[in-house]
């Protein structure tokens, strides 16, 4: 009775959700407080699981959400993406500035961020919180309290940070000359790196006993340089108190320099295509401009052995930088460096303070925060749900590889692939194995000194790469694991024990199968004959995806077909797994595999949940660029491509043989017909 009472109490909110028909659609564009309420309600409702009535409410809400994205008057057989996602752009519109793209992953992330925020807002409690969590909350509290710090004290503290490295006159006092004769930019960026770990102009990174040196992360130049200059000008004025006219000039110069630097940069992960060098080989080309050995020695605080080897990250970058720094005036270079340094310490004195501080904590303690959510929400039932579907997907994948349609694989190769598949494991990325007490016990924080606390956090582990937690699934070939981000543990968004299983297989199932498909790519497992056969099939995808059109433009014929192949395998594998689930389900239970007010068969529902996983909207300008990008097929075409290759789709929707979704030329790695 009690549970039903709660459900009734929440009914008005749910009704609101159903009537607006937008479900979670509000999360992106609506006000944060409304989103939070809906999230919180959902949590409450879903915790009371033992009432059929609650289940019905949850299903109604999910149905309303799914229907709200659809454009059911369109023909599913003509364009299944538009049929499934046609109204998405109205509900979650992208725009020119932010967000330039909207998609389902963002909804997940947004809900996840709310969960993180709720955990942070619980008052620190020495009885229940671990030491690391207490530190984190102390840091968060110091950030919130910093609003009370008088502005002049804040500015003075920023100037003190610069003064740790070089003498600079008070920037807010006009007419002060900055003596630049003694300014040594290389020495300055090296000391900043050693102390705080920021890669300004140059990068240094230790990983697996290797020293990488070279290009920092690519600066994403804004298309509009004036817009960037305005941002910097605002920084200079509001944070440093630089007088308006001066700020304008300086900002322009800094933005110009930034653009010149970014022109010589490429998008590349550290470790990819780096070149082994001895110190003198690194120095030789640019002796006039700078001495890389000197930089490295200051940062790592020891001398390099002449025989020691370093890895140069993006070999073309150093000579580009040499030219830029030679041409730049020392003043401009200096201001650029100090702006780069200080922006890590900027504190917004207006706007949503909770948002600012939560996002700071998220950047600085990513693993600990993930771990907190994991402990809070990753209960045994959810983990076992996820492990269950993982096993079913693996089982089904094995079936596809064992089927006669995979006979083109040479026997030994096939066995190796099967073994590899069997050995692949799923890891929930909640960092349960990290000893956070050990990691944070030496971190000393003060209750009110936010900037001091920031310094303390930055000065830890300055030479290793910063962790950027992923919010999507990834396959890690080194460990042969599929990593599931904590954000995906959230139930009642994509999947839930209240919803039909079709949704679980269509969303989580296809995502898992996609990553598993990447585990087949390890070339060392393939013999030449099988590989030649594989290449033939790959060529089919290449040709086919090259013929697909988005907004009237053709996609570039890309040779990077791995993603497309993984998509195609994933839908096949997940469908197969769902079909087995259905076949084992008692006929009387089949009714649970549908949603109220959505007249779709269980299999059709499976396809709908798959397609809606990829609903998105992208700003026009961004969209054009997207189709020119060679790496990723745009979402709509991912759905169209994979489903039109999959014969069963056409059958489940009774498509005629002429419809667009039943292209006669199908590309498949394994053409296992599964019905
Ligand atoms: C429902 O929740 C109760 C606790 O509230 C739990 O004991 C029970 O196992 C749950 N049932 C299901 C089907 O998850
Ligand atoms: C660069 O610096 C290192 C160490 O300070 C020094 O040994 C080396 O001779 C310098 N190289 C050049 C080309 O000046
Ligand atoms: C550098 O390597 C060479 C050959 O490997 C060796 O003869 C020489 O002693 C090494 N020099 C130093 C300073 O270690
Ligand atoms: C998968 O690996 C387990 C051991 O990890 C083994 O017991 C099992 O037989 C393997 N299954 C297949 C189909 O190879
Ligand atoms: C974690 O580290 C602390 C000290 O750094 C130690 O006392 C504790 O036993 C460790 N916990 C585990 C589970 O290893
Ligand atoms: C392969 O798939 C066909 C249907 O396409 C099916 O009849 C057959 O049983 C499958 N073979 C294996 C070994 O699973």
TrEMBL record:
The gene is Nepl19. It is found in: Cell membrane. Belongs to the peptidase M13 family. The keyword Zinc applies. GO terms for biological process: protein processing. One of its GO terms (cellular component) is plasma membrane. Residues 474-669 form the Peptidase M13 C-terminal domain. It holds the Pfam family Peptidase_M13. Keywords: Hydrolase, Metal-binding, Metalloprotease, Protease, Signal, Zinc. Residues 1-25 form the signal peptide. It is a single-pass type II membrane protein. Residues 77-425 form the Peptidase M13 N-terminal domain. SUPFAM superfamilies: Metalloproteases ('zincins'), catalytic domain (SSF55486). The keyword tRNA-binding does not apply. GO terms for molecular function: metal ion binding; metalloendopeptidase activity. This is Neprilysin-2.
């Amino acid at each position: 009775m009690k549970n039903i009472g709660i459900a009734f109490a929440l009914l008005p909110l749910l009704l609101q959700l159903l009537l607006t028909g937008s479900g979670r659609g509000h999360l992106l564009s609506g006000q944060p407080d409304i989103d939070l309420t809906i999230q919180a309600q959902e949590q409450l409702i879903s915790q009371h699981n033992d009432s059929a009535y609650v289940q019905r409410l949850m299903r109604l809400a999910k149905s309303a959400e799914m229907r709200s994205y659809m454009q059911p008057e369109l023909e599913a057989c003509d364009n299944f993406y538009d049929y499934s996602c046609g109204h998405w752009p109205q509900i979650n519109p992208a725009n020119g500035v932010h967000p330039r793209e909207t998609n389902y992953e963002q909804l997940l992330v947004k809900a996840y961020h709310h969960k993180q925020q709720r955990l942070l807002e619980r008052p620190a409690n020495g009885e229940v919180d671990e030491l690391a969590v207490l530190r984190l909350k102390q840091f968060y509290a110091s950030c919130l309290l910093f609003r009370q710090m008088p502005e002049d004290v804040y500015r003075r503290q920023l100037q003190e940070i610069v003064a740790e490295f070089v003498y600079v006159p008070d920037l807010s006092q006009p007419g002060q000359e900055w003596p630049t004769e003694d300014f040594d930019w290389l020495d300055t960026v090296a000391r900043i790196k050693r102390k705080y770990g920021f890669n300004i102009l140059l990068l240094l990174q230790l990983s697996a006993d290797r020293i990488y040196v070279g290009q920092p992360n690519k600066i994403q130049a804004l298309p509009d340089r004036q817009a960037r200059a305005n941002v910097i000008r605002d920084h200079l004025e509001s944070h440093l108190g630089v007088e308006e006219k001066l700020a304008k000039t300086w900002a322009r110069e800094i933005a110009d320099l930034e653009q010149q630097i970014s022109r010589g940069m490429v998008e590349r992960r550290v470790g990819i295509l780096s070149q082994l060098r001895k110190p003198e080989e690194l120095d030789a080309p640019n002796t006039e401009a700078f001495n890389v050995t000197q930089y490295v020695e200051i940062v790592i605080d020891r001398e390099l052995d002449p025989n020691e080897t370093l890895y140069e990250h993006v070999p073309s970058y150093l000579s580009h930088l040499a030219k830029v720094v030679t041409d730049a005036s020392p003043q401009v270079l200096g201001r650029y460096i100090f702006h780069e340094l200080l922006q890590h310490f900027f504190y917004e004195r207006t706007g949503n303070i909770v948002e600012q501080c939560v996002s700071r904590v998220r950047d600085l303690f990513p693993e600990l925060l993930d771990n907190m959510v994991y402990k809070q929400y990753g209960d045994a039932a959810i983990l076992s749900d996820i492990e269950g579907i993982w096993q079913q997907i693996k089982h089904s994948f094995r079936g596809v590889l064992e089927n006669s349609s995979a006979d083109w694989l040479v026997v030994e190769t096939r066995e190796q692939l099967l073994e590899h598949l069997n050995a692949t494991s799923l890891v929930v990325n909640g960092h349960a194995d990290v000893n956070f007490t050990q990691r944070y016990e030496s971190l000393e924080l003060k209750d009110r000194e936010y900037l001091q606390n920031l310094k303390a956090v930055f000065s830890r582990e300055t030479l290793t790469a910063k962790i950027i937690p992923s919010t999507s699934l990834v396959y890690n070939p080194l460990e042969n694991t599929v990593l599931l981000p904590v954000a995906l543990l959230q139930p009642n968004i994509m999947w839930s024990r209240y919803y039909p299983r079709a949704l679980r297989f269509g969303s989580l199932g296809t995502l898992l199968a996609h990553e598993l498909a990447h585990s087949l790519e390890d070339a060392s497992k393939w013999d030449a004959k099988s590989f030649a056969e594989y290449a033939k099939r790959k060529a089919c995808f290449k040709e086919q995806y090259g013929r697909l059109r988005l907004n009237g433009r053709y996609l570039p014929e890309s040779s990077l077909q791995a993603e497309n192949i993984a998509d195609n395998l994933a839908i096949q594998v997940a469908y197969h797994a769902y079909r087995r689930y259905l076949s084992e389900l008692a006929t009387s239970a089949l009714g649970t595999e549908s949603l109220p007010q959505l007249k779709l068969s269980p299999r059709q529902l499976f396809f709908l949940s798959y397609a809606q996983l990829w609903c998105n909207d992208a700003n026009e300008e961004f969209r054009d660029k997207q189709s020119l990008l060679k790496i990723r097929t745009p979402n709509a075409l991912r759905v169209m491509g994979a489903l039109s290759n999959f014969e069963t789709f056409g059958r489940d929707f009774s498509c005629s043989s002429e419809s667009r979704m039943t292209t006669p030329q199908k590309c498949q790695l394994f053409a296992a017909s599964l019905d």
